[in-house]
Amino acid sequence: MRIYLSSLGCARNRVDTELMIGRLVAAQQEIVYDPSRAEVIVVNTCGFIKDAVQESIDTIIELAENKKTGLLKYLIVAGCLPERFKNDIVESLPEVDAFIGTGAYDQVEAVIEDLDQKTARKKALWPDPDQMDLQTCDTPRIRSTPHMAYVKIAEGCSSHCTYCIIPKLRGRHRSRSIADIRKECERLIDSGVKEIVLVAQESTFYGRDLTPETGLGALLESLAGISPHVWIRVLYGHPASMDDRIIHTISAHENICAYFDLPLQHASATVLKKMGRPYDPPFLRDLFSKIRTVIPDATLRTTLITGFPGETEKDFRIVHDFINEIRFDHLGVFIYSDEDDLPSHHLPRHVPKQTAKKRRTTLMTSQAKISLEKNRKHLNKTVKVLVEKRGAGGLYVGRTSFQAPEVDGETIIRGEGLTIGDFASVTIREVHDYDIVGELT
Ligand code: SF4
Question: Given the CA of residue 236, which atom of ligand 1 is nearest to it?
Fold first, then answer.
């Protein structure tokens, strides 16, 4: 059958989609990249917050149109949206033929077969995500990112932030083994990948659940030894589970990007307590000064939430002062999304959306100045850039080790004859708030 897959949400969801594509190709199914040619469409959804839920529903309804106009026979919805809303979503989306929860990705080809054989016993499959087998290096996968690869090192989360639905959708934290992840990375590097991006819900908690217990530091040590020419990057860390071994391992290996993605969510001790984030400003100051002592030019990325229930003007001033003090290289700011099936919903003194938006604007305005100041330190310096595509006006576009995929600025390269997917030496001649521009050296 001709199958089209749509992937919504985060990098971890993208890996799940790539694994579903791998399974379907292994089952001799044909993958098409135009939904109007598809007999089956699978939408791998996000259900994290209201906006993501709405985007998922809009995408499903839009693709369902192909039943009227195209060749579409079966529409399947997978992932966090059906996992979160279960029977409510089944009733509200009659145009969908089957629902697959986050614990049943490995049954996608069977679901399609059952639909086609008219032997589908159940319209919805949502086994306990905790029970789903983790992917291994032998799980078939078709990647959608040519030169870099996301590698999911663990599934689920054992933290319980009061505003986050993920533990309910993905189960408790379960790590893959170092040997299994290393084998997957060896194959990816043999296939020409130049950057491995390690992802999980809480990457810095990696290995704490394994017997014998291990850690992200040990994993990084193992992966750094595969090839000195391939970048290893970690995304989605957590300040509370960052440890000295991780910092020193990153410092000891040039091919591990000195890039620390540590979502704080806030910097007021009062708000952090209500969020269920087990740290406070003194802890954070110690952590960032330790990182910068061991790795002076470390890149720091974080995310913050404005408008969390009970956030006062004083709390907001604390977080605003904190970003001006620490001066992150990259910052993302989200407005609190009130989800009535989460503990934070029951907290008093909810903040008006308008106020939350104003606070986000204030933080991002300050951050733009900080980012420009940070980018200025690269002026007239020569940096290594992974060339990813041709941009406007025939210029090349790529990323440095201090620019993560999809979330940070890019490097615009003036020059000719570059190979997409290769590294290039670029001297930075121009900097902006987020992007930087350079010429081949
Ligand atoms: S650590 Fe991250 S994924 Fe886990 S509950 Fe908190 S916000 Fe959600």
Answer: 2
